[in-house]
Amino acid sequence: MSVPPSSVAERLSVLPHTLPACENARLVLFAIRRMGANCLADARAAHAMFTAFGERFRRPLMLVRALMADLATSAAGPISITHCCCSRMTHAERALMHVLARVELYPDNARVLLADLLGIRRVDGILASAAVVAAAFADEGRPITC
To answer: For residues 127, 133, 139 and 140, what is the CA-based torsion angle, rounded to 10 degrees?
Structure first.
């Protein structure tokens, strides 16, 4: 069964970006999607983090939860995320992945991306949350890259 061209164009306009090549970025994206769609205590997100990090999963999991809470309470509008198993990303998801990948080396760039994503000017607290998530992943040998 073929899909009409207009449907393909519509999907590509809503989900214009492919998943990151980095396995660690895909892991944090999965956790973000699960927590965003269900709740911060999503069991599948916790299981994915446990599978990836083993016994040292608590720090990255709790920090991703804190980042999600910061994003949810600070955003001026909705942040577009898609289903956890989707093979493409929204603009917002891609921006968040770039923030996590750049926050340690290029904090000014990450600050601008985050401010655009959230629609607010003062993002230093949320940027700090993103930085500790990126550091937690890097400390466990799983740096987030895009």
So the answer is: -160
Q: What is the DSSP string of the chain?
A: -PPPHHHHHHHHHHS-EEPPS-HHHHHHHHHHHHHHHT-TT-HHHHHHHHHHHGGG-HHHHHHHHHHHHHHHHH-SS------TT-SEE-HHHHHHHHHHHHTTT-HHHHHHHHHHHHT-S--HHHHHHHHHHHHHHHHTT-----
With beta carbons less than 8 A apart as the criterion, state whether 82 and 76 touch: no
Residue position matching structure tokens 């040998």: 141
- For the chain, the maximum distance between any two Cα atoms, rounded to a whole number of angstroms, is 49
- State the 10-residue block means of pLDDT for the chain, 146 residues long: 56 76 96 95 97 97 98 94 90 96 96 96 96 98 94
